[in-house]
Write a structure and sequence with these properties.
Number of domains: 3
Strand content: 15-25%
Strand order of the largest sheet: 17-16-15-18-19-21-20
Radius of gyration: 23 Å
Low-confidence stretches: 1-7, 214-222
Mean pLDDT: 86
CATH class of the largest domain: Alpha Beta
CATH superfamily of the largest domain: Vaccinia Virus protein VP39
Number of helices: 14
CATH topology of the largest domain: Rossmann fold
Helix content: 25-40%
Length: about 425
Amino acid sequence: MVSKSEQNRQKILRMELPISGVCSFYDLEKVLKGHGIDYVKCRNTLYIPPQCSLVSLFGEIVSLYPDNAGFKILRNSENLSELNLLMDKIIVANYLYLKRITPRLYDLVELRVEDTSFMVFVVQHVNGEVPTDSECLSFIESLKKLIEARELLIDSNVEWRSQENLQYLGYNGDVLKSKEDKQLYCLDFQNFTVAKPKMLIQNVVTEGKDQLLYGGKRFLRGDKYVYQSIPSVGAYGKRDVEVRWKAIKRLLSEVNINLDNRLILDIGCNAGMMLSQALADGACWGLGWDRPLVVEHSQRLLMALGYTRFNLKGVELTRDYNLLNDIQTRFISRLDESVIFYLAVRLYFDFMPVFGRIPWKVMIYEGHKGEKQTDLSNDLRELYKMCPFSIASSTEYNDGDSHSRTLAVLIRN
C-alpha cells in the first residue's frame, strides 16, 4: 500500500501483528475480545484506549508511542484514493491540534495481519467526561469561526454537513472535557478538510520569519530568506534541503545503510527540514534540538507539512548539555541503531561529550564552509576521544548559497 503522494510526506510505517486467522474487521474484533482488550466499536472504527494488556498483543506498535496513545483502527482501506485521503487527514488533525481543537495525532500506521491490512490513526487519548451544554456550545462556536473564515471545510459526505448542525458533535459524544487539563477536545478530525494547506505552511513561515530566516538580503533573492529551504512551498534557503538530502542518501547507500525504522537525533535542527526528509524515508521517530524560539516555529511548520513522528526540544545548547535527559524512556532501546545528524554545528559547541554515552550507530557529519575532505580526520579528533568509530564514506559538496564543505557518514565501532 504505497502511494506516490507519500514521497514528500511522512512514510507510513508497516507493523506486523503476530496473530493468525484475521481476514476481516469482524475477525479482528473477535481477537480483541479473546485477549480481553477493552475497545469501543463505532460504525467504521474500533477504538482501543491505552491499557497495559495491549503490549502483549500489539508489541512494537505500542512501544513506539507515548503511554497515552490510543489506536483508532479503520475498516480496510485498500483503495489508493482512500489512502491518499487518510494522509490528507494528518494535516487536518495537526491543524486542529495547533488550534487547540483536537488532541495530538501521533501517527497513521499500516497494521498487517497476514494478508490483511488495517489503517490505524494513533492518537492522544483523552481521559474525559461529557462537558456541560454551555461549555460544548462555546467550544462549537470556536470551531464555527474556523469554518466561517474558510480555513476549515466540513466534508461533503458528513451527515450533519451544515454549520448549524455542528452541535451534533457534542450530542454524539465526540466532544469531551479532559480530566487532566480541563480543556475540551473534539475527537473526530476526519470530518473536516483544511481549505488551503499550502497557505497554512506559508503562514507558519511568515509568522516565524524572525527565527527561521537567515542573514541579510541577497541579490536575486530579495528580502531575508530561510536558512533551510522548504520545498513544498518553493521557499528558497541558504541551504538547499533537497540537494543536501541527495548527498546524504548517496553516502548512506555507498555503505548499504538506510533509515528504515531508525530513531533520528538532529542536533541544531533549525526548521526541521532534515528531520522531515528522514521521516519521509522511513525513520520511526525524530528528536530535534534548537533554540526555544526556533523550535516553537519548527514544530508548527512540521505539523503544517503533515509530519507527526517527532519531538522537538527548545534549549540553548552548549558543549556539556546532556541530550540523554531529553530522550524519552520508550526510545532508549532504539539508541543502539540510532542516527545522529550533526550538520554544520561543530564550531558552535564542538563535539558534545554525551556522544560517548549515547550508543549511536551512525552519525551524519557535515562541516562548515571551507572544511576540506583531506582534513576530516583532524576535524573529528575530539570525537575520536569520546568513542570508537570509522569514517565509512565522505565527500565535499555545496548546496544552495553555501560554500563547499565536507560531508561524512561515521559508523560506531
